Predict the structure.
Amino acid sequence: MAKSLQAQVITQIDAVYKRPVLLYELYLSSTLRFAGYKSNVVFPTAGNTYYAKSITVDDISQDTEGQIDNVKVQFDNVSRDMAAYNNASDFKGKILIIKRVYLDAVGNALNYNEVFNGIMGNPSNINQNTMEVPASTGSNLDKKSLIVQYQRMCPWRFGKTECNTNGLADLTALKATGTADSGTTTTLIDNALVQASDYWNNGEISITKGTKTYYRKVADFDAATDQITFDVELPVAVDITCTYIVYKGCDQTWDTCGAANAWGPSGNNQINFGGCIHITTKADAG
């Protein structure tokens, strides 16, 4: 006669399978995606591949609200890949995002939390085994440097004070709230959305269903169908019980700040652009 496991044992097994895994996104001239895990992780489902790599996080400091301000990430460099990336691209001033995802029993990534989003400094301690990359959400890690990093893209977060002169990027006025008419795990449809296609692209959206609120970025808005597409799949499907708040975003490029696209500021905001459009990338200059 077959034996069955006790309910407590099954609960523990499920908890182990839903273990957290950290995903790392380094926005260089091309985006690097790594998973601090024993095998590759595809996230979201049928989405981007995060390649398995030995990674450790050290020197973590937090603010009084528990948010991470500074980290030092040590990447495996045995195959010399990180050293090659350092030779081809400038890390300093570029974005590092760390996400925590949870895996199910067959290795699929479930919901995620963004635990860090900051600016990288120059890599250090580069050797045949590892390479360290510091990152911070606050002031520059290198005290002997310009306050504003040289980079082509604008470093300001859309809606913050640095790009808010004349109210041209005021997110408090550039948002919409409502109740969904329908949707899926990756889309939300509301016929009350009357903006032009792509208007909400690069923005942020919070979806509340029951007592749970989910936060996503907007990958696309289609005016013909009044449909918002999320960057990452939800663990639940959107339906008529879901309420939402969507904020307008910006891709932080010079052209968009000139109001050339639907997803830009409410007027020409190039006077507040913080990027350096006339410099070349390290690869271009090489």
